[in-house]
Amino acid sequence: MLACKTENRVPEGFYRDWVVQELRGEYPTLSLSIRSERCNHCEDAPCVSNCPTGASYYRGDGTVQIDRDKCTGCRACIAACPYDARFVHPDGYVDKCTLCVHRLDAGRPTACEEVCPTGAIAVGDASDPTSEVARRLKHESAYVLSPEAGTKPNLHYVRGGSAR
Amino acid sequence: MNPHVEIESTRSLAGALGERFWGWEIPLYLFLGGVVAGLMVAVSALLLWRGKDRATAAMRTGLWLAPVLLGTGMGALFLDLSYKLHVYRFYLAARPSSPMSWGSWILLLVVPVQLALVLALPPARLARQLDRMPDAVRRIRALALRHFRGLAAAGLAGGVALGVYTGILLSATVARPLWSSGALGPLFLASGASTGVATLMLFEKDEMAHGTLARFDIAAIAVEVALLGTWLIGLLGQGPLYREAAGVVLWGSYAPLFLGFVVFGGLLVPVLLEALALKGKAAHSRVVPALVLAGGFLLRVVVVYAGQVIGFVRA
């Protein structure tokens, strides 16, 4: 979170990523999961289909991006995002996680991936069977958030910490 | 049974989640858009049916009110934009998947039709000024009069397009359970028809025409009540999240406003008063259309605000 805020100069009070703590069940069968959440870069993203100006778009590499020059700040995309991943930047345009595309383009890992001390975050091409992401996705506990929203999210989680 | 779940996040703890993203501007715009759609449909249909020579003063008033109210609504939409300098971007793109894009183009096409209809059937005060207006205006008026039936048909189509678009704007977003219903579009369309007719009733002095409008309004309100039921009963049967979303308006924080002012004060009371007036047991008054209009506005406020209370994300 701090790396993201620093890397992307996210203003005070706004978040491109955040950490969720979820406690499930009744004592003594309790389970606790902690996960880092952000834009799910959905394959069928309602923020893109609802954007009236084309400011929200698929970059072609599996990420969803925002063209600030086209954004009017109408917030149709915020209304459409089931993950509440977007916010209005104080400068007027809508902002969210870009998956640090500026770093990916330079061949560097995302800021969150680089600083994560336990290697819990992996960013990459899931269609490449030799990639770390593809290897982790083979784990039976891999899941996505709010699948009922039907947006085909590209952000996956693996339970249990045994994926490495 | 659903397991017990406690969930919190760094952003929910910081109070950065659950803030309302659409304020008063959107319900005001949706209300005015609905009223204008209803006005355009009702007046255009009456003009096509009875002919322009039998246009009443109230119909002429409805014609010039349409662009005034729509302009006010568009002003509210403009105020809502957080990047106002980029407003022109709506007209550099046509995106079929976006109801808002459809809407911006529909608005652009509807306003000239409305203005041409006003020139063809101007209110008395404007009619007196026509001789002093530039040649171009008089030429447009002559053209509008020559193709009047086509223009009225365009007004009818424009009204329907406007009503449908304001209706599906919310339901096209998949992320808000309260808005996830196909009934919401027709509901706003029926409410727009009812409030448009109520606006005409405010100005109609002819007793017979008033009766016709009241009958139409009762029918529109009956459809609206049926659609309200379809919308909320449908949500109650869809699952826990949707039931919780419907609960916000049925027994939650917006229930008093919804049940008291929208359903009772804005639909049931006016329909009862209209029925009594049609039976000759009460006089036609401006109280009925005023209640319908207030109820129509509050319906948009409740739907837009309450829809933002429950989302898929909890933290």
Total of domains of chain B: 1
Contiguous helical run count of chain A: 6
Any idea of the CATH class of chain A? Alpha Beta
**Helical fraction of chain B:** over 70%
Q: What's the helix-strand series of chain B? A: EHHHHHHHHHHHH
Shape of chain B: globular
CATH class of chain B: Mainly Alpha
Helix-strand makeup class of chain B: mainly alpha
The total number of structural domains of chain A is 1
Main sheet summary of chain B: none
Radius of gyration of chain B equals 21 Å
The whole-number mean of residue pLDDT values of chain A reads 93
The total count of helices of chain B amounts to: 12
Approximate strand percentage of chain A: 15-25%
What is the average of the pLDDT values of chain B? 93
Computed CA radius of gyration of chain A, to the nearest angstrom: 16 Å
How would you describe this structure to a colleague?
The complex is a heterodimer of chains A (164) and B (315). In chain A, the strands form 3 sheets. Chain A has a two-stranded antiparallel ribbon. In chain A, strands 3-4 form a two-stranded antiparallel ribbon. In chain A, strand 1 (17-24) and strand 2 form a beta hairpin. Chain A has one domain: Alpha-Beta Plaits (2-Layer Sandwich), CATH 3.30.70.20. With 164 residues, chain A is an alpha+beta fold. Chain A is built from 6 helices and 6 strands; from the N terminus they run H-E-E-H-E-E-H-E-E-H-H-H. With 315 residues, chain B is an all-alpha fold. Chain B has one domain (10-306): Formate dehydrogenase/DMSO reductase fold (Up-down Bundle), CATH 1.20.1630. Chain B is 71% helix and 2% strand. Chain B is built from 12 helices and 1 strand; from the N terminus they run E-H-H-H-H-H-H-H-H-H-H-H-H. Chain B has helices at 10-13, 25-50, 57-80, 99-120, 124-129, 135-146, 148-171, 184-203, 207-236, 240-250, 255-278, 287-306; one strand at 5-9. Chain B is globular. The model of chain B has no long low-confidence stretch (mean pLDDT 93). At the A-B interface, strand 1, helix 2, helix 3 and strand 5 of A face strand 1 and helix 4 of B. Strand 1 (17-24) of chain A pairs antiparallel with strand 1 of chain B.
